[in-house]
């Protein structure tokens, strides 16, 4: 048997690349290296702007050419860095040498020794990860997540008046509307979106053990904490003043926990939509050329929601592991985070793939209002709650002497099918006021939805 040509090991880089490839712009090794180059370049500019060690600020043209090393970073640079790392056996040192080469090409050899000045590798890495994760979340994951919320909100508004039989514990229960039930998910997901949007991306820039020791020896008169804070904030990050060699990763744990929470709410949505499809509440719209089963030609399988479930579970498994691992580093630094953080893209990739499936799936279903109405008409016993509640109110108001209304309705309805005629006859015989009796006699399962439709307005 001949060997296959090199193949992607992860389905995210193979089968599903078209759905998640945009994340690679940020959460790939190349994306990380480009961010590292950015940090090194901006640190060079920041030092010369301050005139460290007799340097003079770079001209606008020199800054522009130096920054173009980042903006024009491409495959040739990726390959060059890979070659450098093969020699250095150290990813950040390879980036330093790469930047030094660019300074030579730009005629900026005089500031070469300021490359990576007073930095430990983690000073570069933590800022680079913060930049890449921030941009991946803001530019890729959150827009797709909010698109799903938007699609769901549109369905909630469209079906706000579509009365449906609820099921608590899987059993017929007080009716709601499909719109209100979907709005519940919109509200849950929106809260998490706001929390993710408010994530604080922290960075440190304080040397080998977070003490500015080398900095102070080299330039004792510089206010290094101020320099550090201003540099970190110039990258649109929040400064962390108290760290070991590494930034403590707490912001990452917080973010991944929130995304994992979002995954689990989305998983709940997927299983509910799957169940509504199974009940026939939602019809699946046939897609031209698609096959549901290799042997049963009639089938349209809810694969979008099933695939979403699996990918949400995988995403949460990775993100939960990262959140648990990254908050611990032995003493002043260990390398457990090094391999762990290289899987951030995997966690977000599976979540993004699930979002893509859900968004597509929501566009391929249609509500069967006739079936919803028939289901309601077949379950008049759900009005037992309304009847016993009205009786209790009438007793308190002095218009009824019925004892234990709940037990009375339990005897009539529990575990039984009760039709419209039977309930009407029962209500007619009740000792309650005429207005209350009229309200109950006019009630139907489809009309017993309270203010479900109006609650959709809570979405704003």
Automatic annotation (TrEMBL):
Q: Can you give the residue ranges of the Fumarate lyase N-terminal domain? A: 65-308
Record keywords, A-Z:
Lyase, Purine biosynthesis
| Alphabetical list of PANTHER family matching this protein | ADENYLOSUCCINATE LYASE
| Pathway membership | Purine metabolism; IMP biosynthesis via de novo pathway; 5-amino-1-(5-phospho-D-ribosyl)imidazole-4-carboxamide from 5-amino-1-(5-phospho-D-ribosyl)imidazole-4-carboxylate: step 2/2; Purine metabolism; AMP biosynthesis via de novo pathway; AMP from IMP: step 2/2
Q: Which organism is it from?
A: Agromyces albus
Gene Ontology MF annotations: N6-(1,2-dicarboxyethyl)AMP AMP-lyase (fumarate-forming) activity
Q: Name one GO biological process term.
A: IMP biosynthetic process
Report which superkingdom the organism of origin falls in: Bacteria
Keyword Transcription regulation set for record: no
Main function? Catalyzes two reactions in de novo purine nucleotide biosynthesis. Catalyzes the breakdown of 5-aminoimidazole- (N-succinylocarboxamide) ribotide (SAICAR or 2-[5-amino-1-(5-phospho-beta-D-ribosyl)imidazole-4-carboxamido]succinate) to 5-aminoimidazole-4-carboxamide ribotide (AICAR or 5-amino-1-(5-phospho-beta-D-ribosyl)imidazole-4-carboxamide) and fumarate, and of adenylosuccinate (ADS or N(6)-(1,2-dicarboxyethyl)-AMP) to adenosine monophosphate (AMP) and fumarate.
Q: Which SUPFAM superfamilies match?
A: L-aspartase-like (SSF48557)
Q: Boundaries of each Adenylosuccinate lyase PurB C-terminal domain copy? A: 329-449
EC annotation from Swiss-Prot or TrEMBL: 4.3.2.2
Into which EC class is this enzyme placed? Answer: lyase
Q: Which NCBIfam families match?
A: PRK09285.1
For this protein, the record's InterPro entries field holds: Fumarase/histidase_N (IPR024083), Fumarate_lyase_CS (IPR020557), Fumarate_lyase_fam (IPR000362), Fumarate_lyase_N (IPR022761), L-Aspartase-like (IPR008948), PurB_bact (IPR047136), PurB_C (IPR013539)
Sorted alphabetically, which CDD domains does this protein's record hold? PurB (cd01598)
- Look up keyword Lyase and say if it applies: yes
The molecule here is called Adenylosuccinate lyase
